[in-house]
Amino acid sequence: LRLQPCNPSFVDARDAILAADQAFFAGKYRCAIGKAFARRGLGLNATTGSSSDDRVVTQDFTPIAGNSLSSLLTATICSGETLNYVATSNTAGTTFSWNRAAVAGISNGASSGTNQINEILINTTSAPIVVEYVFSLSPTGCGLSGGVQQPVRVTVNPAAVTPTVGSYSICQNQNVPAGEGLKMGVPVPTNSVNSDITFLSPSFIRPGRTAGIFY
Q1: DSSP 3-state of 63
Q2: % helix, strand, coil for the chain, step of 5
Q3: Residues 161, 190: Cα–Cα separation, whole Å
Q4: What was the pLDDT predicted at 196?
Q5: Are 128 and 158 in contact (CB under 8 A)?
Q6: Residue-level pLDDT at 23
Q7: Pseudo-torsion of CA 112, 11, 15, 46, nearest 10°?
Q8: Kind and range of the H or E run holding 36
Q9: Fewest CB atoms less than 10 Å from the CB: which of 40, 77, 109, 121?
Q10: What is the DSSP letter of 50?
Q11: pLDDT at 111 > cutoff 90
């Protein structure tokens, strides 16, 4: 319980139990614990995404083997930034290979490699995109046949937009000249807030009985 984060998800609780086994018993019961979780949908690749909320869970029945990645499993980078990642494992003699499928919104094509990732990922959208690298580890441990597959998820944030402010002179208590003020380098994406806000207008009229303009 002390190894769990506050308000843990089922996945957090699973990982804490496995960590406790490692801390107290050097992983002696990892195979048995991992197989028990996997039978119930909390296998190796089960995830709640970026949230710890158990209402959105991707179940997985992949057995949690004795051999797994000891390097980080999630990362966040900006579009155009180099992703440097080296796979490691606590099991000596482990070999690695990875595959990455093409992802909508990422201009890079599909790719693959061994133990190291060195890529510049380009996000062509205005929203963060999660790119998944699937690592295969060998040997597996726990008497499993075939290779153990474990995902490394990288969130690629869109490129930062640098705002520019025009220079002009204005006297006290006078209006800002039309068309001046904060200007974005690219159109602001359309969002829905009971009505539409677009890059053509910084305000919208809320539908319903209230007819005022809201910002």
Answers
A1: coil
A2: 10, 30, 55
A3: 16
A4: 56
A5: yes
A6: 85
A7: -30
A8: helix 30-39
A9: 109
A10: T
A11: yes
